[in-house]
Request: fold
Amino acid sequence: MGSKSSRSARARSRVPSESALELLRNFQTILIVDDSRSMRGELWKQAGKALQDLAAAASEYDTEGLEIHFLNSPEFATNVKTAERVEEVFNKVTPTNSTPIGSKLKALLGSYLSALKINPDLKRVNYIIITDGAATDRGELEPEVVIVAAARELDSMHALLTQVGIQFVQVGNNFAATHYLESLDNNLRTKHNIRDIVDTTFAPVDEPLDMVKILTGGINRKVDEHGSKGL
Reply:
């Protein structure tokens, strides 16, 4: 066992992360996993590990339980509160087909925004998308188009600036995908004069995930701009 002082230091080091994650109590956390064919093999294992870790951290604060969706598979789960349930849902899915990020976002955002119009006090929502690459959607289903439309609709409803957050978590090291996801994070606000609702984070292999950055970067502008170390 360590000394009393070392245990105290470790306890203090956990406080900022725990304090930052308290924000999640105000949000419904929805985890979306890219199950496209490019995710086969090691990337699928990495995505599964990331899903387990993120779900474990988020479920400490989202007392209503998490939602899990996939880009292609119709498989989904609500009110997820245990690691066993996360594993059960993930193991039902096999990577296949393309990467319809925009299509999935449009479906989920459309449903949420319709409900928000009816109930302005609806709980805020935090979408976290685990993916390895750029979307294959085109035209009106491109993620940029979908996100911009959602942001403008939120503005028209005078919704809270933190009503909706979208976090992209990149697994793998595809440079083109990194550039694409970072452009969604860094360019949409100024390009389209909209609220900033997007963040993106790289998930390194064999290293702990930055839980604060991933789980709150889409809903906390300070974390989005400066990372968890800025807290």
About this structure: Residues 1-16 have pLDDT under 50 and may be disordered. The radius of gyration is 17 Å. Strands lie at 27-33, 66-70, 77-80, 124-131, 164-170, 198-202.
